[in-house]
Amino acid sequence: MIILEMTQVTDEIIKAFDRLIPQLTQHSPPPSKKDLEQMAASDQIVVFLARENGKNGRILGSATLATFITPTGVHGWIEDVIVDRAARRQGIGEGLTRACLEKAQELGLDSVNLTSRPAREAANQLYRSMGFVLRETNVYRYDLK
After folding, report:
1. Cα angle for residues 22, 48, 72 (degrees, 5° grid)
2. Minimal CA–CA distance to 81: which of 53, 122, 109?
3. Which among 32, 35, 49, 99 is placed 20 to 30 Å from 18, CA to CA?
4. Nearest in space to 111 (alpha carbons), one of 72, 82, 57
5. CA–CA separation, 5 vs 122, rounded Å?
6. Residue 145: pLDDT band by 50, 70, 90 thresholds?
7. DSSP string of 36-89?
8. Cβ neighbours for 20, distance < 8 A, ≥ 6 positions apart
């Protein structure tokens, strides 16, 4: 397995997200080509892709590091860690998460946050084993649609 930053968008990448996003959520459609191109061009978004057998292998997963600045500093969030069902329990999720953490460190961030639904037991166990600490906080959502 190799993990690469998504720097350009191909039909293969679009098809991979069409396959992977429904494995993460039924509430959001897969990103469009335009969305993926905006992410690839952004200075604040880094999308990592996990490929089997090197640079030309099948895309098995993805994770995104999003960074943003506020008056209290630069913040990082790991979002949408997805591993294809057929490829789980092979270290891909950990590899993708580590790639996000390494990039965050390279960018000078002090910490990185992520959220994971309690039902995603394996993912939560992975994050705890990697050193993530459950925060005492409430996450609120206000739907605009």
Report:
1. 100
2. 122
3. 99
4. 72
5. 25
6. confident
7. HHHHHH-SSEEEEEEETTSTTSPEEEEEEEEEEEETTEEEEEEEEEEE-GGGTT
8. 30, 59, 61, 62, 82, 84
